[in-house]
What we know:
Layout: H1 3-19, E1 36-42, E2 45-50, E3 59-66, E4 77-83, H2 84-96, E5 112-113, E6 121-126, E7 133-139, E8 146-153, E9 160-165, E10 172-178, E11 184-192, E12 198-206, E13 209-211, E14 219-221, E15 225-230, E16 242-250, E17 254-261, E18 266-269, E19 279-284, E20 290-296, E21 303-311, E22 314-316, E23 323-326, E24 331-335, E25 345-351, E26 359-366, E27 373-378, E28 387-392, E29 397-403, E30 408-414, E31 420-422, E32 424-430, E33 434-438, E34 444-447, E35 450-459, E36 463-472, E37 475-482, E38 489-494
Antiparallel strand pairs: 1-38, 2-7, 3-6, 3-8, 4-5, 4-7, 8-9, 10-16, 11-15, 11-17, 12-13, 12-14, 12-16, 17-18, 19-25, 20-24, 20-26, 21-22, 21-23, 21-25, 26-27, 28-35, 29-33, 29-36, 30-32, 30-35, 31-34, 36-37
Amino acid sequence: MNRTTLSLIACATALAAITGFASLSAPDGSGTDTAKAAAELPVERTSLLCPSPSLSDIADTSYTSFTPVTKGTGSDGKAQLVSAAQESDAGDKKADDSDKKADGKKAAKPVLTAKEPGTPDTEDTSGGDSPALIGTAEGRFAPGWTVQETTEVAAGTGRGLQGVNCSAADTEFWFPGASTAADRTDYVHLINPDDSAAVVDIELYGKDGAVATTAGEDITVPPKSSEPILLSTLTADKQTDLTVHVSVRSGRVGAAVQALDDKIGGDWLAASADPAGSLVLPGIPKDATAVRLVAFAPGDADADLKVRLASPSGSITPAGSETLHVKAGMTTAIDLGEVTRGEAGSLVLTPTGESAPVVAALRVTRGKGDKQETAFIPATRAVGTRATAADNSAKGTTLSLVAPSTTAQVKVTASAGSDGGTAASKTYTIKGGTTQDVELPVPSGLKGTYALTVEPVSGGPVYASRTLAATEDGIPGFTVQTLPDDRGMVAVPEADEDLSVLQK
């Protein structure tokens, strides 16, 4: 057997070992690949990043971890959240003590460790010095692992309820809805989970296009660390509506915008779904007193969009806001007022003619006068196979489901409580073109908080969001998280073994 054949066999063996599932196959002579359809299998590792929750000394933050029970997983695994600062310190110690024995080093102490899939785990912290967290789930804890960070701030800038789903690292993010106005304090939080530095550019786009920045390029985020970047330090230009573009030159980061207002509260602004011709922004609270749509066209072409509200009775056109013209490279905003008028609603944007990619988000206000609070709803991906929301309570939780095109059936499961209770499920039918705030199944004997799992059963695509509400001193605090597919399953090609390819 010659050396080339040996190398090919070694390569084939390595490939099979890496996938753990697929064997090699070669196309047959007819030009038709003999590979079988891809199998949907649970992921074996999930990483999430949680931004530093607040600078306020009177902030109270809770972290809730949850993994849905998933068929096909093994019996092993774990899920932990660790302080990014501890990870960095551990890395520094490892470098300093490289000549010492490895068993002499202590691992960073987890902030939270999950105990069992199917049951939420919680951890609380207070004050303004809580660090960003780096989370990893493996084995049976990995598929659909979700971590919710919820913060209550009693007074001051951004007072109210703030919430964000801890997210995966990536290389590009769009945040329409940020601001450098005088009454806003907006930060871009960048978290680097890796062992090498990441280099990031932050670009700002306003109503007239790109905004000149003084320090938006070549931002270095050290390994295992977090960098909050105050937008007003990047430019002296005061603009009410901005789109923030985070692009990574090297490495990868997690990113989220913390948008804080001096008078009307604040919340986390999660990244919009990838630029697309059609977008869905689900779950506007029925008692919203003001809704502002912010959109941006990142390509070279202008976008002309139909604006529709999917209400409980069907799709309607907001009066005076039938269409929206978004110029290429510019941020456009329109006020929709009390668009929901006491009913559940979701905004659906579709092209009026030729499609052009856009990103978008809503700033939603509840309350009036000095009792107002704000939250954000970015455009999001469909639920897909399954989506999960953690940190729900018996009161103050609303789940909104929208089927923008075709009627769909959806199964919703409320997990066991973090301190006790038994899971419960319900199936709902969502008519095409409508939004429904569904009556949630409540775990029997519920103690603590619970998680919601949303799984489409049949019909067209479904989009979802979850609202948490808590009124404090007459201020209607609330936060909204969209529920895209949790990416707990991965398609793994299945193939037939054909070693004849190694002899050609």
